[in-house]
Write a structure and sequence with these properties.
Elements: E1 2-9, E2 13-19, E3 25-32, H1 37-52, E4 56-63, H2 67-74, E5 78-79, H3 82-93, E6 99-103, E7 108-114, E8 117-124, H4 132-142, H5 146-154, H6 167-180, H7 184-203, E9 213-216, H8 223-233, E10 237-238, H9 246-254, E11 273-279, E12 288-294, E13 297-302
Parallel strand pairs: 1-4, 4-5, 6-9, 9-10
Antiparallel strand pairs: 1-2, 2-3, 6-7, 7-8, 11-12, 12-13
Length: 314
Amino acid sequence: MEAYLGIDVGSVTTKVVLIDRHGNVLWNSYKKTMGQPIKAIQAAFSSLRRDMGDVKVRGVGTTGSGRKLADHIVGADQVKNEITAHAVSAIYLVPGVRTIVEIGGQDSKLILIRNGVVTDFSMNTVCAAGTGSFLEHQAARLGISIEELGRYAVSASSPARIAGRCTVFAESDMIHKQQMGHNLEDIVAGLCDALVRNYLNNLARGKEITGPVIFQGGVAANPGIKAAFEREVGKEFIVPEYYPIMGAIGAALISRGTKQSRFRGWSISDRQLSTSSFYCSDCPNSCGVIEINDADTVIARWGDTCGKWGRMEG
């Protein structure tokens, strides 16, 4: 069987998908990165080999904040940013899509599409109050799991008004609402509303959200956030089947144009891979160079401005 591989390495989760040449998802994995992206990729590859065997890979695409690291490990044919990858998958799987709302663990995105082309986008990579980590932290503070959060939110009768411009203010405001006697359901719904307001204020200001609207990323699993968006925007938010892995699907779809793949092979899952770093002192730039090691052998280096060390890739 011939297939295409998509890898989306984020700060919170690592997604790996295998598609056929028609774009059908054959296999997928969604797991916590846990600060160890190499081990996350290796674990996904081990699971894929166990489930699918050593599939013939015709193309590999990587995306996410760890896309360059994934490229150097697996040998990618296409290395694309998250905006491109998410847009490609949404356009392919949901023809006619005009707005993409994507919220992950540590960042969020708004992508506007007109006539199948990205016309505008915005990203939040600095404010945690508009991301999934905000919800996860507050859920832990309330003593409930992140999976339970959505169920509580949709059961609310009168959502509490909670400040959402900053996680610190939100937490203190949430504690204040608890002390005032608001019930758990209303507080959770208030948190969902706060995240949505933060997202719209930071990413959607001056931009027109028109339907069809696709809601993707891990936070799309929360029905409370979906309902809050629909109340605020006044439009239906469509959650696609593969909402948590759309970036990886997009990377795999892009790789279908590959003629000769650079894929290093499935044995990557068995190798003793690790990373190290050093600062180059050959010029005033003092670039931080990252090394990928296979046991005692350096197989790749990158991170320098001039390309000196990158040319030494193994």
